[in-house]
Every structure is written in C-alpha cells, then in structure tokens.
Design a protein that fits this description.
Layout lengths: L2 H18 L16 H17 L9 E3 L3 E4 L3 H6 L4 E4 L3 H10 L2 H11 L6 H9 L21 E6 L6 H7 L2 E5 L5 E5 H18 L3 E4 L13 H7 L1 H10 L5 H9 L3 H24 L3 E8 L18 E4 L11 H13 L2 H19 L11 H4 L2 E5 L2 E4 L11 E8 L3 H7 L11 H17 L10
Parallel strand pairs: 4-7, 4-8, 8-12, 9-11
Antiparallel strand pairs: 1-2, 2-3, 5-6, 9-12, 10-11
The protein binds zinc ion.
Zinc ion (ZN) binds next to loops.
Length: 457
C-alpha cells in the first residue's frame, strides 16, 4: 500500500466515520407508525360527530372520542377530571348498539346512566352481541321479483288532522281566497297521510314490510283522537303534573276549563304523540324510516293565508345539537346513541336521494344554498344543497337511518291549487300527492340499490 493508497484509506475511513456519527445533521428518517385500529375508529367517529352532530363548538365540553372509545360528560368539570357519564369502549360498540336497539327507551337511558366507565364483562359482550333483531332469511332468488323482500320500512305521516277543524287546533292548514275566486282549504296532516298510504302500497309491491305510525285521520300513534284523549287522559295527566309540582292548582283548573285547544295540543298531546311514534317505530326495528311532511313558506310564517311566489324542497336528517342542547343527561344519551347506532351516514345518503327525487319528480328546486330561512341558518348543519341535519323532536328519537322530508311550499299559489285537489275525507288522492309518494318510493328503492327507470342523477 503506498502513501497515495494510505491517503485514500483515511479519506474513506473519515467518510465512514462521518456517516456513522449520530448527530442532529443526519436525523434517521422516521418510519410512520400506522395508527392503531382504535385511533382510526376515534378519527372516523370524531369526524362524523363534528360533521353532523356538533352545531356549536361549546358542545365539545360534553364528549370525548379517543383511543379508549366514546365518552360523554355531565359537565366541563367532569371532563377535566375524566369522569365520564358513560364511556363505550371500542370493543363494546356492537354490544352497546344491541342494548340500545332492544331496550325500551327508559331502560336504555338507565343502562346508559349506570355504565359510567365500567367495562362490560366478556359474558355481557357475548350475550349482547347475540341479541340482535331476528331476521327472517330471504329465500334465494326471491329478490328478483320482490327486491325489497326482507326489509322493514317505517313511515310516519306527520301531524294528525284530517279536517280543517282539527288542523286549526294543530296549526297546520292552508286557507286561501285566490284572485280568480278559487277557494282553497286543505290541511297538511291529510296530505301526509295520503302520501304515506300511497307510498306503503307501492313499497309493498316491491316486497317490503311497511309500518305506518298512524293510519286514520285525526288520530295519533296511540290510536286516540285529540278529542277522546282530552276527555279520557288529559285530566289525569294534569293532576299528576300538579302533584309533582309542575303546575299549581290554579294552573291545573285553568288548563282543564279555559285553555284553548291549540295550547293543550301543543303542550301535552303533541309531545306524547311524538314519543309514541318513536316507540312504535323503534319496536318495529326498521331498516329505514321515512317521515313525511309538506312545507310552508317561512315568509310569512303561519298561518299560511296569503299565497307566496317561491316554492322549494328541503329534507332533514338527525343531528345539529345546538349550544345548551347537551345540558340534560337524556340529550347526552341521544347524542351518544346516534354515534353508537352509526346511522348518520345512511341518513345523509337517503336524504340526498329523497331531495334528488323531489327535484326531478316534482320539478321544484331545492332551497338555495344562500337563503334567509332562520331554522336553516341557525338551527341546522348544511349537508348539501337542500339537505340539512337538524335536531327535530321525532327524528332524534328514531333508531334507524331516516329522512324527514319537507316537500314543497303548500302556500305557493300554483302548488296550493294542485294540493287542494287532495281531500282524504272524500277519498280523493290527488295526482300531486301521488307524485310526492313516487319521489319517496324511488328514493327508498335506490337506497336499497334497486335500479329505477328514469333515475334522477
Ligand atoms: Zn309538518
């Protein structure tokens, strides 16, 4: 080895030494660690919660979604102390979901409140996992002719009125004297029921099992008319409210003898009826729920007694809790319930299909993205044009994917003329109501991947 060679050896050695030196100039390329399955679940559920449920940032004080699972907290202080009201660990999701689906609501709430951060035993996980809804197996090939066989679909026709007298009590009617002398008089409850009945028949032809929450005019989900409820149930209800200190004796007497029906309906009949509708739907364990309403122009607000020039469709899915709407444990239970049941994406998907079909079948556009409608801008979360998440009384209680449809403005002049042709009491189902039912029908079929002729894009 001559000196020249020697020099090279030193150079090489020096280089090698330099390369081997651990130092800040040469950081090891960090291998990205794959996120754990729990971290992935947390990311996904947090994104869903923020996308559909959280309308105002302060609600984040009431929950945490991390590698452990989904937790709710009764207060910000409890969150700081890490004392959950209920924590569902990731390996308990399927079990907890079955508990929610199978227990009646009061039992499910009790279950939620008792859980805290206790872990289910292996036995509990096993038992609850096995407790899912029993499904009748669909025979092979049966879906060729009856593509919806084996599916359960719940339909809720909104409100109850089948005549103007009842419609005035529930404040859902359109009475217009048009310039050409036409007299318009119809009620939303009647349109909703007519639409639901047509839709039921059409879906049954595709093989679906269909439930209506009510099937008679002027009657709620418990099978009672408002008038019979007022006679048979209201007095005991008010007595109980007085006993528990919610009412004074004077208030109770006033409500029994002097209060207008509209007030009694809204304060007592309606909340009970909505709960009953949810009970009936959840006991049925449907694969999909359709809640049917017809809208009215938000300007001017009710009563809808002057024709308007605008006409739009909009649809709602559950979600959009507002500031203050997680203050009660029952509300937090619903928040957690919606995440655990995992129906939000399905609801969004179905709601978009309903809106598409409304647009195409009814030839009426979705409400513009930029609008001045208070409940859309302040009480809802925008999902896509015409589709909003909103925390409505009934939809927040239902355990399946759902769409709460609000087709058309009933007080739009041309629309009112078409809708006025529907009079359920006279057994007149109008072509316009059939079109609305057809739009829902196509959306339901498409949700279950049944190809429809002339499919809306
Ligand atoms: Zn309505």
């Amino acid at each position: 080895m001559n000196s020249k060679h020697l020099r090279w050896v030193f150079v090489w050695a020096g280089l090698a030494w330099g390369l081997a030196q651990p130092g800040p100039a040469q950081p090891k390329p960090a291998k990205p660690k794959p996120p754990s399955p729990q971290a992935q679940l947390a990311k996904q559920y947090l994104a869903t919660a923020r996308r559909y449920l959280v309308r105002q940032a302060e609600l984040e004080h009431y929950f945490r979604i991390d590698e452990r699972g989904i937790a709710t907290f009764a207060s910000f202080a409890d969150k700081k102390k890490n004392e959950p009201e209920c924590l569902v660990y990731w390996n308990e999701l399927a079990s907890f979901k079955n508990a929610l689906l199978n227990l009646p609501r009061p039992g499910a709430i009790e279950y939620y409140l008792e859980k805290k951060s206790r872990k289910f035993t292996a036995q509990e996980i096993k038992e609850l996992k096995a407790a899912g809804r029993e499904r009748t197996p669909v025979p092979k090939g049966a879906r060729a002719d009856r593509p919806l066989q084996g599916y359960r679909i719940a339909i809720d026709p909104g409100h109850i009125a089948g005549d103007i007298e009842m419609a005035k009590i529930e404040q859902r009617f359109v009475i217009l004297d048009l310039d050409d002398g036409t007299k318009i008089s119809f009620c939303e409850g009647d349109l909703n029921l007519g639409t639901a009945q047509v839709l039921k028949e059409k879906l049954e032809k595709l093989g679906a099992d269909v439930l209506l929450t009510r099937n008679r005019p002027n009657t709620g989900a418990r099978g009672l008319t408002y008038q019979s409820w007022k006679k048979t149930e209201l007095p005991a209800l008010l007595r109980a409210a007085q006993k528990s200190g919610k009412l004074t004796a004077a208030q109770q007497t006033h409500l029994l003898t002097k209060a207008p029906d509209a007030q009694l309906y809204e304060a007592y009949f309606l909340p009970e009826d909505l709960q009953a509708r949810a009970r009936v739907i959840n006991a049925y364990q449907p694969d999909l729920t359709v809640i049917i309403h017809y809208n009215g122009s938000p300007f001017p607000r009710r009563p809808w007694n002057k024709p308007v020039s605008s006409n739009y469709n909009m649809v709602f899915m559950p979600g959009a809790f507002l500031a203050g709407e997680l203050a009660s444990s029952e509300a937090r239970f619903d928040f957690l319930r919606m995440l655990v049941l995992g129906n939000l994406e399905g609801s969004a998907q179905f709601a978009k299909l309903v809106l598409q079909e409304f647009t195409q079948r009814l030839q009426v556009p979705p409400v513009p993205v930029k609008n001045r409608v208070f409940y859309l801008n302040f009480n809802s979360i925008f999902v896509s044009q015409g589709v909003y998440a909103r925390n409505l009384g009934l939809s927040r209680l239902v355990n399946s994917p759902l769409c709460y449809g609000e087709s058309l403005y009933q007080d739009h002049e041309a629309e009112a003329r078409l809708l006025n042709l529907h009079q359920g009491a006279k057994k007149q189902t109008s072509p316009r109501v059939r079109q609305v039912a057809d739009a829902y029908y196509r959306a339901v079929a498409r949700y279950f991947k049944v190809e429809m002729e002339g499919q809306a894009k």
